[in-house]
Amino acid sequence: MTRTAKTINHSGWLLMIFGLTLIIIPEQVMIFFWKDLVANYWLRTLGYFIFIEGLVSYKSSFYEVDGLYRWIINYRLLQPAFFITMLISDFANPGLMLYSTTELVLGIYSFLAFKQDNS
Fold first, then answer.
1. Positive or negative, the Cα torsion across 45, 31, 91, 71?
2. Which residues lie closer than 8 Å to 61 by C-beta, 6 or more apart?
3. Taking the mean position of all CA atoms in its chain, how far away is CA 53?
4. Which residue has the higher pLDDT, 69 or 20?
5. Please, which pLDDT band fits residue 36 given cuts at 50, 70 and 90?
6. Is the pLDDT at 13 greater than 90, yes or no?
7. Which residue in 2, 47, 40, 39 sits closest to 23, CA to CA?
8. Exposed, middle or buried: residue 66 (CB in 10 Å: 0-12, 13-18, 19+)?
9. Distance CA 20, CA 50 (A)
10. What angle (nearest 5°) sits at the alpha carbon of residue 73, between those of residues 116 and 43?
11. What is the b/e burial string over 78-110, where b = at least 16 CB atoms within 10 angstroms of the residue's CB?
12. What is the rounded CA–CA span in Å between residue 64 and residue 49?
């Protein structure tokens, strides 16, 4: 398994754990990260999509899908710009920035491993 595959695998596990946490205990996550009240079904829906993103990352690491790695890395590096824009325009809550920051860190981690594998 290449370094990039290992970073994608690790981040996949982390995202699956984050997603399952949102699905199973959305109230506790809401209290900790959001100051506004958010309907549980929105948090569970967000948790589902985070879980699926983690599952795709996890499964792609076993098949060494380099093209998908590039998409995952680009997505993770550009996602904070989207959330910052949403935050500035007052359509998002600062609690979402933790997820966005986590994605940015995982994206940089995967990008550096990808550069080492392909240099």
1. negative
2. 1, 5, 6, 8, 9, 12
3. 7
4. 20
5. low
6. yes
7. 47
8. middle
9. 8
10. 145
11. ebbeebeeebeeeebeeebbebbebbbebbebb
12. 22
Q: How many CB atoms lie within 10 A of CB 33?
A: 17
Dist CA 60 CA 110 (whole Å): 13
Other beta carbons less than 10 A from residue 48's beta carbon: 14
Q: How far is CA 80 from the centre of its chain?
A: 10
> Quick one: tokens of 74?
């680009």
Give the confidence band of 30 by pLDDT, cuts at 50, 70, 90. confident
For helices 40-63 and 66-88, give the axis angle rounded to 10 degrees: 150
Within a 10 A sphere around the Cβ of 8, how many other Cβ atoms? 30
Could you tell me the two tokens for 79?
């996602």
Q: Can you read off the two tokens belonging to residue 72?
A: 């995952």
